[in-house]
Amino acid sequence: MAKIKKCLVYNKINVYGWVDSMVVLGWLNGPVDRWKPFVANRVKQVIQSMPADYWRYVASKENPADCASRGLTASQLREHTLWWQGPTWLPTYVPEKEDKQNYSTNEDTKSNKQVNVVLSGSEIIKQVVERQNSLTKAVRVLAWILRFTTKNKKQGYLSIQELNKAKNLIIINYQIESFSQEIHRLKQGKGVSKQSKIFSFNPIIDHNDILRVGGRLRHANIDPEMKHPAIIPCNTKLAELIIDQAHELTYHGGARLTTAFIRRKYWLIGGNNATKKRIRLCVKCRRQNPVLHQQIMGDLPSAHTNPSRPFFQCGVDYTGHVNVKSSKGY
């Protein structure tokens, strides 16, 4: 067909093709990406030679191609008018007068497998925290998700209550992941096991189900979060975000200052080492901290290095202050 069209291109003749398979017509008229690769590749090749609009249906008994595929003797072939002249209606065929038919098929349809992933609440919270580079962003994103999932019709900015609820959910999620046994025992009214790594903190659970340091500051006149800071597991994304936030709020302070600022609200397990490790990754601190150079000292005088008799070399050390009269330089 491609060679025939190439020969007839200058005569501006429309070339039509007939096929006796409605399934093939359905393939040609359907979207290519719907079929399996074997069919799709061949449909693309056929359409490049002749578009689907120029293909028509012919009954099998009127298809000359069947004469060759089914086999004929030489004497039968000589008298076979269908082979030599084609169908009787072909010479008078007018494409414009034909009613357009739509062909479709479900043969060799590519199967689309739909995979539905259902995430639990803890997995959603963890994904939100893992994808953010700031604790403030993570809290705000989760607060918007909570407003959407609870179908809260409240408009406008996020409230302090919504932000606190989102932050508490993040802390609780990471605490359950690391200290599930301790939390379970405390809710049952039992003490924490001596083998637990937070046994020395005498942990308690507040009214928001957050695990906090017990301590001995219950009667201190300070902020409640400073009395009982929330216990945060180390080597987690939440711990990294807390350290980064404290480091920025202290204007890129050192490890001690950052740790002291963190402990006003949180108690990181192994917080000193984690803070030092995180601060070493701060690009601004590494860029601004100068490299200290050690000054090369001069040679010692001979009186300090060579032996001599006592009091052969003497020096005077002034004690107390020396009065100096200030003047304009004259």
Describe what this molecule looks like in 3D:
Residues 236-290 form the Integrase zinc-binding domain. It comes from Euphydryas editha (Edith's checkerspot). InterPro entries: Integrase_H2C2. This is Integrase zinc-binding domain-containing protein. The protein is mainly α. Among the domains are: 2-97, no CATH class; 120-178, no CATH class. Helix content is 42%, strand content 5%. It has a two-stranded parallel ribbon. The protein has a two-stranded antiparallel sheet with strand order 3-4. A two-stranded parallel sheet has the order 5-6. α12 crosses α13 (255-262) and α12 (237-249) crosses α14 (271-279). The mean pLDDT is 85.
Q: State the order of secondary-structure elements, H for helix, E for strand.
A: HEHHEHHHHHHHEEHEHHEHHH
Tell me the helix content. 40-55%
Give the radius of gyration. Answer: 43 Å
**What's the β-strand tally?**
6
In terms of per-residue confidence, which ranges show pLDDT below 50 for 5 or more consecutive residues? none
The pLDDT mean sits at: 85
What does the overall shape look like? Answer: elongated
Taken as a percent bin, the fraction of beta residues is: under 5%
- Contiguous helical run count: 16
Main beta-sheet annotation:
2 strands, parallel
The first-to-last residue Cα distance is 112 Å
Strand order across the largest sheet: 1-2
Tell me the structural class.
mainly alpha
Pfam family, one: Integrase_H2C2
Organism: Euphydryas editha
Protein name: Integrase zinc-binding domain-containing protein
InterPro entries: Integrase_H2C2 (IPR041588)
